[in-house]
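Hey all, quick one. A colleague (J.T.) asked me to put the zinc ion job into the tracker so the inputs and the structure tokens live in one place instead of scattered across chat threads. No bug as far as I know, just bookkeeping. Sequence used:
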Amino acid sequence: MLVRATTTAPIDTAADTVAIGVFDGKRVAHDVEGGALQRLLDSGEAQTSFRHLAQTHAAGKRWILVGLGDRDRFDAERARVAAATVYARCRDLGTTVLCWELPHRLDDDQAGGFVEGTVLASYRFTAFKSGAKDDAAAPAELLVSDHESRVVTVDRAAVVARAQNATRELQDRPANDLTPTALAEFALTLADAHDHITARVEGRAEIVARGMGAFAAVAQGTDVEPALIVLRYEPPDATGPLLGFVGKAVTHDTGGLSIKPAGSMHRMKFDMSGGGAVLGAMQAIAALALPVRIVAVVGSTENTINGSAVKPGDIVRAMNGLTIEVDNTDAEGRLVLGDCLTHAIELGAERLVDVATLTGGVVTALGSTYAGVFANDERWFDVVQAAGARSGERLWRLPLDPEYADRVKGRYADLTNSPEDKKAHPISGAEFLHRFAGDDVPWAHLDIAGVGYDLGKPWAPKGGSGFGVRLLVALAQAHAAA
Ligand code: BES
Ligand code: MN
Ligand code: ZN
């Protein structure tokens, strides 16, 4: 979908459909045909309660009035939801060009929210559907009309939402299509498309040769080639610390020999969501040409069972020298990520954030509303938390504590990847990773198992959500501004 900001009044644009939001207690700001829209509101057919829709025809166009609710409760997320609601109606109506008339006095994030909500709602995963591929019912163009020029905000929001959709496509692709090699191809394509990105992809032999024994242990259970994907983004004008983005990209997690129940195993194609978010964020950051330096490390493999799969009780040695008892082969994400964190530090990362669908426990604790966040540094936590709040991808902090750290000590080796009792899984996972991140580099771990897919939001009801893309872009933006 084309997206364009304009200062032309909606009535004078080529749009066939105009969307207008109205807050509680407010009137229609710019009416048509002597008050047709206000009359719709006065009659009660249109209402200002949040997400309420009504429509009419006037001046040769279709007009959709959408309730925006309480002005004081309005935020960027409500803008995304309102926009997605309108978009769904537009699809039903056969809209070709939609023009949003922005309410007065929005901040940039709220204005951008209307664009994000529309572009995100337009996402469909149709790669494997036979028949009409080109989505004939979908609006082809979005115009965003305001008195002041919103070009920068609108363009930025479109770039970020498209990158988020690219991540969602990676997520939705099944594991027999999106192999680690296919994910690596996405990274290589990014590097081809952007002057200041370089990519390096290594396979099983290099992962083993580097001494990444934890990552290699997961990958030894599949004949599918794993991939260690490293992207560097270094534009000439960049300043500030080297940011390290680390992502878990398990393209399918069967659990390995500690096998998962069959009922929901198909959803484990989404276990690459963290790595997918890192790649989507790199796409957006490069497209926006943000003056920051980033090294991204994405560890990708299947977690399946061939004849040489790692067995519960096996002991492996990670790249940082620590030995690990693999007591549960389903706690594979921390094995992959541990070595990737070590690698990111070796590559010079000065601030770390890892993104992973790490534990079912975080789904139980926080559902699809907040991602869990852990951090070894208060100031870095504040920065990451602020990026979450700014982007609408919200984070709830869970504790690190020496008492929890004791629980990941191994009986026969330095560490166990899975303490015997069923307590505090998200924290055990984080404390395990903590042993790789250390305390010298500020580090935050985002457990996105609950927010990575099937969000149930109007702009992302089912399938991959692209969670993490907007947050990582906001994090980069915060460093670009500093
Ligand atoms: N990929 C899963 C976590 C997950 C669960 C993601 C549900 C999305 C939805 C991860 O590899 C896993 O299996 N974690 C185990 C760890 C346990 C064995 C210590 C878990 O959380 O049950
Ligand atoms: Mn697992
Ligand atoms: Zn997993």
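Adding what we noticed when we looked at it: Residues 173-481 form a domain with the Aminopeptidase fold (CATH 3.40.630.10). The pocket of BES (ligand 1) is lined by residues 253, 271, 328, 330-333, 357-361, 363, 418, 425, 449 (CB under 6 Å).
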